[in-house]
Specification:
Shape: globular
Structural class: alpha/beta
Amino acid sequence: DQVLSIRAVTEEQVNVLQNISSHNQTVLFKPDSPSHITAKTDVHLYINSGSVKHVTDLLDKHKISYSVLMDNTEELIEQQTRNETTDPRSGSVTSERYLSLEDIYYWMNKTSQEYPEMVKIILIGSSFEKRPLYVLKLSGRRPEVDKAMWMDCGIHAREWISPAFCVFFVKYALTYYNQVSDITSMMNKMDIYVLPVLNPDGYKYSWMSKEIHFLHYFSITRLIVSKQTRMWRKNRSVRENEDCVGVDLNRNFDASWCTAGASSYSCSEIYCGQFPESEPEVTAVAKFLRSHKDTVKLYFSIHSYSQKLLFPYSYTFEQAHNHAELDYLHFNSIISQENFIGGLTSDQCAISLELAKEASQKIRRFYGKQYRYGPGAETIYLAPGGSDDWAYNQGIQYSFTFELQDQGKYGFLLPPSLISSACNEALLAVKSIAARVLQRI
């Protein structure tokens, strides 16, 4: 199997590439759907080994340029699932390996037992296949407060670095509370709700294996994950009169639901579902946040990949009308009047831009990585029905989506050796934005 980076230049080449990526045993890494392929933008396409020659012949025939990003996908999948112990629940649970769904559930229970005064497990609902949706509530050792932050991970099954970050964040918060000032301030001034896996059915499916080998003489457990399931994105719901399994949960929230940028076709990777909040996972999150919208002031949704810090809106371009000028403003004296820009006031758009820009600059300064920032629709593409836009429309003014490492070298197959760096970059951004929000609320 290979992953190619492909760039179409003409509209004819765009049409050819859209057709190729809709068939031929391929999976789009970037963008999410053939409909999002445009001229002069890089397309990352996973191709089954049996189709590589056919696809490259088509690309050559139509003079579409491409290069090989990855030709060792099976090795990368094996690295992601490898556990260098005989006990899958031993060893590091943060930055050395990816955790299966069962290991994440185990870790959550263990963490709540180790920090009973700071961690509470909340069951907010269940998935289509009846797996529990557990949220960890983190609190400092202090009286009750009236402010909170929400973070969800794993809404798309194949984005394994996302749940890894939620685990990393919780571990960091509990370990460095009362030792590091910024995380201590966050824990003392806000409750922090963390949903490590919003899409447990899809995540479980992405770990499904063909076979398991126990190599006792090396003390290694090898889980051979099927490459067909590893790239799964949606949840696993099955509905009557639908051709395919699953809904894109980040197109199922009631925020300009199923308009341009989503699909009503059940086999699409961006299928919006039968109606807003049709999926139990989305219903559970929406119900919880509605009941806590007076206290939740800050919302993060963690995704991968492409290294971006995004804020509303993703379902319309309208708020981008003054985006260019906002980028040059000195934010201590920005905009004295409230002019609405696609639902975001210019003040609010400028503040979101300021927070994302500062976080991006810090990542570049400390880690040398480039993270683009801006409104979702303008920075990536139209994506209606997203959780961050929905959260903002509920009154959670500070709403962000992070796209973590990398920019395509490994994509969704980010090796375990890079978990730590990806998580540290995201952690810096979360702490930077949270500190600024706490100054404002």
